[in-house]
What does this fold into?
Amino acid sequence: MIWIFFYCIRTILTRENKSKETKVKKMTPREEMIVRVLRKEGFISIASLQRKTGLKAPTLYGAKQALWKKGFIKKGTVLLDFKKLGYALHLLFYIETEQEIIPFLKAQCCINTLFLIDIPKAYFFEAVFTSGEELNQFITMTEEYIELKKINFWGIKDEILRENAFVES
It folds into this structure.
């Protein structure tokens, strides 16, 4: 399976972007500085961001809005500790199918993140479950609803890094 990941990355990196709709938007030098700090520090307070950039709070709020409008910032996020929330199982799934399954997967409350990857009709997603029984119910329901070509899943032992914010164990 690791070869699929590297194949996808290589394909994405080497593909020529012929679409005019995905034109890269420009950032101002101030926005670039803010994004560099956010990428390095992960989740950071406005006060800490002020100290690291030397910019005043109103300027940072305005830059944040501009970055959001340009699409560089998608929305605010909170990192959750799934174990403390009662989710004993944290898994990554890979599914291949010929069917359109995005509405089905979006409707599942156990799915946190869903990706359509660079293999036709292939999906990669992260999901959490409170028990093995709940996981089995999800797999059974998925197999009943979707004609699967392939399904694989892996348990996440420990989250080490997310959005460049180190997670302490």
User: Anything to note?
Assistant: The CA atoms of residues 93 and 153 lie 4 Å apart. The two ends are 27 Å apart (CA to CA). Residues 27-76 form a domain with the Arc Repressor Mutant, subunit A fold (CATH 1.10.10).
